Amino acid sequence: MLAMPSALSSALSSELPSESGTHPIEAAQRCSSCALRNICLPEGLDTADYALLESVICTSKRVQRGEALYKNGDAFSNIYVVRVGSFKTVVNHPDGREQVTRFDITGESLGLDGVYANQHSCDAIALEDSTVCIISFERLEALCSQIKLMQRHVHRLMSGEIVRTAGQMMLLGNMRADERVAAFLLNISARMKSRGYSATEFNLRMSRAELASYLGMKLETVSRMFSRFQKDKLINTHGRAVRILDMDGLGSV
Amino acid sequence: MLAMPSALSSALSSELPSESGTHPIEAAQRCSSCALRNICLPEGLDTADYALLESVICTSKRVQRGEALYKNGDAFSNIYVVRVGSFKTVVNHPDGREQVTRFDITGESLGLDGVYANQHSCDAIALEDSTVCIISFERLEALCSQIKLMQRHVHRLMSGEIVRTAGQMMLLGNMRADERVAAFLLNISARMKSRGYSATEFNLRMSRAELASYLGMKLETVSRMFSRFQKDKLINTHGRAVRILDMDGLGSV
DNA sequence: CGGCGCATTGAACTTATTCAAACGATGTGG
DNA sequence: CCACATCGTTTGAATAAGTTCAATGCGCCG
Does residue A133 have a pLDDT over 60? Predict the structure, then answer.
């Protein structure tokens, strides 16, 4: 039997400012003292920079499992950083088909798709009860004009998304079903590890159907790959609980 | 028989500043008088802004068919705008597999992948003899701090790439072979039209293999789809020459 | 004219999908 | 507390879609 930690969010939550009450929008948080500042802010900011930073007024907001943080067509004014929880991003085809394009966890940013047309072009849906920081993009841009490090940080953020999606296109265009699932597991593992969680044991937050959409295949195929990897002693799985047994083995299909 | 214009570049070339000689790097060009300024610069700049703009010192460079504008691992310092010609962008998997992630034509920008890690993460290869504007990203960032319109323009540029790749992920993850090829043809058609070329008659600049890679399939499958569309009277094709006969038909597979 | 590089076409094969059924955990009501 | 409905997951068998391998065709250039 596996004893899986609620890895995506529970371990960190104690470090975060306590948030009580039921209002969806919480009081402003100080970025300068946030546990995530090393993830979502550039390094090297001085005290004066942090003072300017507070002007961005990063409020936070709770989003319940299944709720949308924003939807395709919504006016764009903010970007978001995941504080607690996780999200999927979905693009909708006119004919009703859906494609999951991202999964985002603690410290990752959402919403930059909205800059282009000044409205969002996809839906961001919470995979579990989650909390995000709200950052006014207009104020962020103003800040970028003043703090060079911040400007570069925002540019790196956007460029990073471009690089990441290029990798996803390689996955979707060139890799077999087993390779896709293996690559996904290794990717999640690395992101967990970089946040201080176990690289080998975690609970997935998304359904097989959502994962299948993200990987460009059908949910049955994903399920078969999980079963095969288990038979081959690469992983243990039980539903959404995953334990990686052979990292190298996963790396070579 | 089809009489295909060399649509990707020839019609516009007469508007562009004449460039003689064989040196790969040409003298600086004035953005303020460039035929492409409406494509690659924001609207609403005033005379003072244009004066500042010249400081970016947009030199131009010729790249021969098959040559790399930059390669994976190259140090990042510039972004590029296609003046004449066209490029493919290729990401390389460690095991040797390649994925074409973009095709860029006149007025489109290249190189923003390099911002993230300060080095390029893919190869940009000329599909034909081409000319690009070279823009120092460092100077561009400095300019962004001074000209708000410019900052927003750069942000829109990057966000636009994010939106575009989301669409490509939908294509790769959800669409059938015939739908992918049809979507590609309509996409090229729209880009041609927006540049003043025929929306229905053009020459593709890439091989079947390159197109197949971009669309996440094999070159034989692409060829079969072209043949089928021709049989179904949706297009006429002869090698890389394409004439669209039924735009609506292509739109509904 | 002959050779080379793409592109096209055919036929066998492989992979992933589709459809269908069963399973297992969870939660509800009798 | 157990029966039962529900939702997501797993598994199997038949099918469809795209790939692979191989041969042929076509235009271009020396």
Answer: yes
- Which of A145-149, A232-236, B43-47, B229-233 has the lowest average pLDDT? B43-47
Which pLDDT value is given to residue B19? 40
Q: Does residue B172 lie within 7 Å of nucleic acid chain C, judged by its CB?
A: no
pLDDT tens digits along B152-174: 999 999 999 999 999 999 999 99
* A151 part of contact set with chain B, CB < 8 Å: yes
**With 80 as the cut, is the pLDDT of residue A28 above it?**
no
Up-side HSE of residue A160: CA atoms within 13 Å toward CB?
12
Residue among B17, B37, B30, B52 at smallest CA distance from B153: B37
Tell me the three-class secondary structure of chain A, residue by residue: CCCCCCCCCHHHHCCCCCCCCCCCEECCCCHHHCCCHHHHCCCCCCHHHHHHHHHHCCEEEEECCCCEEECCCCECCEEEEEEECCEEEEEECCCCCEEEEEEECCCCEECCCHHHHCECCCEEEECCCEEEEEEEHHHHHHHHHHCHHHHHHHHHHHHHHHHHHHHHHHHHHHCCHHHHHHHHHHHHHHHHHHCCCCCCEEECCCCHHHHHHHHCCCHHHHHHHHHHHHHCCCEEEECCEEEECCHHHHHCC
DSSP category for residue B247:
H
How distant is the Cα of A155 from the closest Cα of chain B, in angstroms?
A: 7
pLDDT, residue B51, reads: 81
Helix (H, G, I), strand (E, B) or coil at B68: strand
Residue B193 CA, chain-centre distance (Å), reads 14
Q: Which residues contact B130 (CB under 8 A, 6 or more apart)?
A: B9, B62, B63, B64, B65, B82, B83, B84, B85, B86, B87
* Residues B34, B27: Cα–Cα separation, whole Å: 14
pLDDT in tens, A36-66: 777 778 888 888 888 888 777 778 999 999 9
Contact A213 B158 (CB under 8 A): no
Report CA(B115)–C1'(D17) in Å, whole number: 40
Distances (CA, A) of A156 to B43, B201, B213: 25, 39, 27
Q: Give the relative orientation of helices A148-174 and B148-174 as an angle to the nearest 10 degrees.
A: 20
Q: Best residue in B79, B97, B109, B115 to probe A by mutation, most A CBs within 10 Å?
A: B115
- Given a contact cutoff of 8 angstroms between Cβ atoms, the answer to whether B242 and B236 are in contact is yes
